[in-house]
Amino acid sequence: MPYIKDTIAARATAPGRGGIGIIRVSGPGVKEISRQILGEIPEPRLATYSDFSDDEDVIDQGIALYFNSPGSFTGEDVLELQAHGGPVVLEMLLNRVISLGARIAAPGEFSQRAYLNDKMDLAQAEAIADLINSSTEAAARGAVRSLQGEFSTRINHLVAKVIELRIFVEASIDFPEEEIDFLSDERIEVQLAEVHQELDKVLDETSHGALLVEGASVVLMGKPNAGKSSLMNLLTGRETSIVTDIPGTTRDVVNETLQLDGIPLQLVDTAGIRESLDEIEAEGVKRALAAGEEADLVIAVVDASEPDAMKQAESLLEDRRTVVVFNKIDLVADTDLLIDGIQMSAKTGLGLQSLKDQLKKTLGLSLNVSSGFTARTRHIVALGYARDALVAARSLLVEQRAGELVAEELRVCQQNLSEITGVFTADDLLGEIFGSFCIGK
Questions:
Q1: Given strand 48-53, what is the order of strands in its sheet?
Q2: Domain co-membership, 262 together with 350
Q3: pLDDT category of residue 190 using cuts at 50, 70 and 90
Q4: What percentage of the chain exceeds 90 in pLDDT?
Q5: Looking at residue 93, which CATH number applies to its domain?
Q6: What is the mean pLDDT of residues 410-433?
Q7: Residues linked to residue 264 through DSSP beta bridges, in sequence order
Q8: pLDDT for 376-418, tens place per residue?
Q9: I want to staple 345 with a disulfide (CB 3.0 to 4.6 A). Which of 11, 18, 311, 350 is the partner?
Q10: What is the DSSP string of 303-324?
């Protein structure tokens, strides 16, 4: 790509004032820029105290770090200038670098160059942004593991298994003179089942990893005075929503972020659902319904003390995105009729852990899951497409013994998996085939 020939520069520390500010430079012009600013090219990987100069005078004094290609983050020559962290000083230093032939880097361009120069794959590059933007400790630890390649290793292992299957199938199609019917070999069907099982496991872990990064939106809905605001305050641990005995106190959506075992949740309290002639309350109900439609999960709060509580819950229980909470259970003498929902009291905290466990289950998380990596929705989509292709391949193999169609589905499976890490070429498969079979004899 032509722009790789450019030298890029940017401030690598946050805006504002600080003890230290860093200007990072990467590209073919780094050595000349170093000579002009430092008067020398520092020894690679050795912190060097130096003057940072322009044509007229010294701009600042600080630490220079030089990383020669390919042993750097981007795979190119990289220079980092650690100056005093005043915005004026850093602006002067950056302008000096730009005047010597660099240009301002685009967002994420240092990481992009690291990916393009094979210093990391696409999933690892995404993990850098995930680490920076982590909102929980679990997300930060997961992002580090993804950056270290844990997620990519799982994907690459799946790709290797699929390539092995393609070798068998495509060799059977392309070299029939070998008189080996690979499609009748039961091992292929067994291996397909094994890959499918492993892919499902990775998909489950990826779903959890994506929740670590992206979180989930959870909306509290129900009739007025069902206890939504009390439940909101119980979950957040503070007086987020106004609680009174007067129905319809909440008129607008109230947002609060909390953690559920390391998973960031955007919790939304809404107006009680009822018909109202009050224009403001009616607008609140409208917004509540809209929030429920957009949510990843809905907590439907039902007043357990009402005679028709179970009837209210019956239709709600059919929605897989909905967790029904029978609130005010402390006011109910006979709870045996309240089934399939979470029995709790937002006032006393009774049933809170059961609600949290159900939320995790409904979000698709094992109660004991401990994700080893972070992931993104695009990874889940790609894994889903890969699984669909694998299922189709297995069906075609068992029912039709259609080698060409099986091969195509396996190719689609591999391509979707490889899109996660950003690595896919037909030459890779060609090399695997010629390396595994004595085709040239």
A1: 48-53, 58-67, 78-85, 18-26, 8-11, 103-104
A2: yes
A3: confident
A4: 30
A5: 3.30.1360.120
A6: 69
A7: 259
A8: 888 899 999 999 999 998 888 877 777 678 888 999 999 999 9
A9: 350
A10: ETTSTTHHHHHHHHTT-TTEEE
